């Protein structure tokens, strides 16, 4: 069937102006031709270092930012040319979970009024009706429904993220864009919140795009993972393939930095230390954007931008010299056995 979300060749270029006449002199290519799709009930992890364009992509899906070009289809409907008014009913269907559970909750409001705020949109308006609905949501996210009258500061960081999730669920969304949903939390709490998101997905049939800066966070929750670098998707694959046989050198480098020893993650190499920093999206390198840092780069890499192409079933890579591209499936199996 149609994917729930389909993003095609999405771009966001922020103009840079200079001089008295404020002429546009350049553009920051924050998102530069991103495509992916997410099926109903699936989780796509969107991973990359800060500045790679993942958050800008999330904000465009939420329609908090207008794309410069490209297409965003939700249930087959093009969102990029909808007016704000026609977008309004869809806003309920697509909700966002934010990184910082501290700043995204109004400290002067009780949990009941924070989580209950969206309910008038659904026609649940009597105080008792709202209270009951809020208490059900609090229970759903693992909080004590009796804590309805407490304020955000009375909760721990993990509990506050649960409050944020409860508020998001009040509108019964179909798609949730979670921007670094656990990176502000203690490591010991992160797994609990990820598990909660997974349980809610099973229970409510939710679809997620989970944005993260490292591959360890999205590993367990993702069905597929897209790796971004300098405004482009450099590799997309099923979770198991991406973590066990990555084909893009950048994915390999990110994976070599995954801290938790895990027998299923390839550990047959040293940690890859990339040279230099991520170049500025104001002046991205020509050809493959990764070439100044890539240990496999050849002359062609500085000249021709590799397109994102399927190199193995369901594994798309933007690289002229992807790893293991030539290996026959039976050879790979032999290596693994
Ligand atoms: Fe490295 Fe070249 Fe592949 Fe880019 S295209 S990742 S520079 S090998």
UniProtKB/TrEMBL annotation:
Keywords: ATP-binding, Nucleotide-binding, Transport. Residues 5-255 form the ABC transporter domain. PROSITE patterns: ABC_TRANSPORTER_1 (PS00211), ABC_TRANSPORTER_2 (PS50893). It holds the Pfam family oligo_HPY. InterPro entries: AAA+_ATPase (IPR003593), ABC_transp_ATP-bind (IPR050319), ABC_transporter-like_ATP-bd (IPR003439), ABC_transporter-like_CS (IPR017871), Oligopep_ABC_C (IPR013563), P-loop_NTPase (IPR027417). It comes from the Bacteria. PANTHER family: D,D-DIPEPTIDE TRANSPORT ATP-BINDING PROTEIN DDPF-RELATED (PTHR43776:SF7), TRANSPORT ATP-BINDING PROTEIN (PTHR43776). Belongs to the ABC transporter superfamily. This is ABC transporter domain-containing protein. The lineage of its organism: Bacteria, Bacillati, Actinomycetota, Actinomycetes, Streptosporangiales.
């Amino acid at each position: 069937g149609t994917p729930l979300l389909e993003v095609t060749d999405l771009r966001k270029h922020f103009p840079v102006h200079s001089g008295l006449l404020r002429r546009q002199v350049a553009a920051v290519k924050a998102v530069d031709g991103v495509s992916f799709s997410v099926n109903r009930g699936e989780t796509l992890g969107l991973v990359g270092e800060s500045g790679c364009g993942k958050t800008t992509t999330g904000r465009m899906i939420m329609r908090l930012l207008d794309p410069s070009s490209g297409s965003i289809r939700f249930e087959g409907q093009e969102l990029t040319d909808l007016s704000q008014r026609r977008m309004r009913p869809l806003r309920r269907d697509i909700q966002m979970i934010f990184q910082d559970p501290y700043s995204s909750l109004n400290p002067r409001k009780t949990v009941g009024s924070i989580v209950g705020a969206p309910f008038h949109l659904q026609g649940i308006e009597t105080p008792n009706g709202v209270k009951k609905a809020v208490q059900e949501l609090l229970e759903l996210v693992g909080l004590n429904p009796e804590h309805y009258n407490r304020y955000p500061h009375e909760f721990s960081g993990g509990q506050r993220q649960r409050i944020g999730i409860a508020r998001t669920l009040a509108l019964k969304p179909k798609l949730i864009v979670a921007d670094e949903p656990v990176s502000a939390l203690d490591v010991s709490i992160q797994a609990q919140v990820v598990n909660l998101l997974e349980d809610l997905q099973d229970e409510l049939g939710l679809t997620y795009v989970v944005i993260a800066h490292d591959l360890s966070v999205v590993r367990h929750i993702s069905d597929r993972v897209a790796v971004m670098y300098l405004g482009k998707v450099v590799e997309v694959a099923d979770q198991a393939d991406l973590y066990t046989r990555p084909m893009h050198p950048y994915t390999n480098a990110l994976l070599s930095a995954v801290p938790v020893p895990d027998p299923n993650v390839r550990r047959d190499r040293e940690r890859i230390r990339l040279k230099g920093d991520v170049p500025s999206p104001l002046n991205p390198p020509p050809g493959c954007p990764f070439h100044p840092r890539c240990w496999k780069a050849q002359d062609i890499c500085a000249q021709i931008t590799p397109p994102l192409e399927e190199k193995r079933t369901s594994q798309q890579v933007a690289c002229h010299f992807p790893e293991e591209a030539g290996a026959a499936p039976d050879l790979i199996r032999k290596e693994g056995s």
